[in-house]
Design goal:
mainly beta; 5-stranded antiparallel sheet; two-stranded antiparallel ribbon; 12% helix
């Protein structure tokens, strides 16, 4: 599978056990300056906060887990790729923010992935 597309069930990837589209965190685009007198000023640094998704996979066989591992190894945390969410919306320039894998000695594997799309 090319690094340009996130592994989905329509392209031979495993099925999601849990899918969560997080609300954009406005603190990602807010700077706070605290003053000595305990006051504060707030400024926004952009119009759109990054979008995050959490995807969890459960009870994966070794070959199925390898699909996710191979994509993550190829993309790392620096290479962008396309991601189609549960609603069928295609998102471009998505990256891995977190990637958690079980101990490879376990027969059944789980994976937890956090994806992020920064504003253009």
């Amino acid at each position: 599978m090319p690094v340009s597309a996130y592994p989905s069930k329509t392209t031979g990837g495993p099925r999601w056990l849990k899918y969560q589209r997080l609300l954009p965190d406005l603190m990602d685009i807010t700077t706070i300056h605290r003053y000595e007198d305990k006051g504060a000023s707030f400024n926004t640094t952009g119009d759109v906060a990054p979008q995050r998704w959490i995807i969890e996979y459960g009870v994966l066989q070794e070959a199925t887990a390898a699909i996710l591992d191979t994509h993550h190894e190829a993309a790392g945390f620096t290479q962008p790729f396309n991601f189609t969410d549960r609603e069928g919306v295609l998102h471009t320039n998505v990256r891995y923010l977190e990637y958690e894998a079980d101990n490879p000695k376990f027969d059944n594997q789980t994976r937890r992935v956090v994806l992020i799309k920064y504003p253009s």
